[in-house]
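tokens incoming
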């Protein structure tokens, strides 16, 4: 595999990717927490 990127370009690329993953991860966690909270309240409300 030929090296088209210099180290600096590669580091910038990694930083961009990790930033996007961090944001995506937070969104997924927030959505998951919201869904779990909703299900908990929803089923808790029905079964009481």
């Amino acid at each position: 595999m030929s090296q088209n990127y210099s180290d600096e370009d590669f580091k910038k690329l990694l930083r961009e990717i990790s930033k996007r993953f961090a944001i995506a991860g937070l969104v997924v966690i927030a959505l998951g927490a919201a869904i779990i909270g909703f299900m908990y309240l929803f089923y808790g409300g029905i079964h009481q």
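note: The mean pLDDT is 89.
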